[in-house]
Design goal:
Elements (H helix, E strand, L loop, with lengths): L2 E7 L13 H7 L2 H7 L3 E7 L18 H19 L4 E6 L5 H14 L4 E6 L20 H5 L22 E6 L4 H10 L2 E4 H7 L1 H15 L2 E7 L21 H14 L2 E7 L10 H13 L13
Helix pairs in contact: 3-4, 7-8, 8-9, 9-10
């Protein structure tokens, strides 16, 4: 039987507003473990992680709000993610704001490097999260994890040690973009990362954009980390997020992404982030995120030939 581990991350220090700390409880209440078990997975809930105590000032002359708290979370999550990447269960991180990926993504990159396998990442988000403390306007660190994983400057001693391995930005694919700062856009475009905004989805469709990336992952025998931000989805159907940006993915577009990921059989780890139950409408965003996760792990209307997990 295939195994999944759930790890709650009640983190909101990177977001600039309260509420994301309730996200893990909302995922559990919405029945995530039960849905995955019904699909034939052995699900282990590891409970909630807590941050390390860190007394660390932000690097000088930068914008990095609540830096010590975020550093404490990042250090704990980096070590937990690296260990989970080496286990026989697929980890799902229940956020929590997107700053949790400062630790989860870098932990998986380090584990993949130790195995001499390439690490790829699919970033489903309205934002590119490619700011750094040197470029950010807000200073909120949930807008920085991809840049940090790629080894960009300005983060000081965030992990307490240098990155064991850096994410190759050409192995990153960002889909759903519609709110990117000017300096962030310039930095992202200079890296060679694959980035698709909502206009690309309108003009070309989800399958045309995602399929070539998944083919690259398969050909390279790579690991694939998926980071799903609530604001990837249009706020009309997913209101429980503090950074709403109109014009996001529709219900069917979001499910199509998950179905393509399941068909590929490539996903090795998953972040579910930015769910803020305080902003939800009777739990409908939490239920939608659970439904999307179920689609990723095989819930379907009709049987089709797919790669198995």
């Amino acid at each position: 039987m295939k195994k999944i581990s759930l790890l709650g991350v009640p983190m909101e220090a990177g977001a600039g507003r309260r509420g994301c700390a309730m996200g893990p409880a909302a995922f559990r209440t919405a029945g995530l473990a039960e849905e995955l078990a019904a699909l034939g997975f052995a699900v282990s809930d590891l409970g909630d992680v807590s941050p390390e105590a860190v007394d660390l000032p932000a690097p000088a002359s930068v914008r990095a709000n609540d830096f010590a708290t975020v550093a404490g979370w990042s250090r704990k999550l980096h070590s937990r993610a690296r260990a989970l990447a080496e286990s026989d269960a697929l980890p799902i991180y229940l956020g929590g704001d997107h700053a949790l990926s400062l630790g989860t993504l870098t932990g998986h990159v380090a584990a993949a490097a130790a195995e001499e396998r390439p690490q790829f990442v699919l970033w489903l988000d309205a934002h590119s999260d490619f700011n750094t403390p040197l470029t950010s306007v807000s200073g909120n660190m949930h807008g920085m994890p991809l840049a940090f994983a790629c080894g960009h400057d300005g983060f000081g001693d965030l992990l307490g040690h240098p990155l064991p391995a850096r994410l190759d930005p050409t192995r990153a694919c960002l889909i759903g973009l519609r709110s990117v700062d000017a300096r962030e856009r310039e930095s992202l475009q200079a890296t060679g990362a694959t980035a698709h905004d909502m206009r690309a989805i309108d003009e070309r469709g989800i399958h045309t954009l995602l399929a070539p990336f998944l083919e690259r992952v398969a050909k390279a025998r790579g690991r694939l980390h998926v980071s799903l931000d609530v604001d990837f989805i249009d706020p009309e159907i997913a209101p429980a997020v503090g950074t709403t940006v109109p014009g996001g993915a529709t219900f069917r577009e979001a499910h199509h992404v998950m179905e393509l990921l399941h068909d590929s059989g490539l996903v090795s780890s998953l972040d579910l982030v930015e769910l803020n139950p305080f902003l939800d409408d009777r739990g409908r965003t939490a239920r939608l995120m659970v439904d999307l996760t179920a689609s990723l792990f095989g819930r379907r209307v009709l049987d089709r030939r797919t790669a198995s997990y």
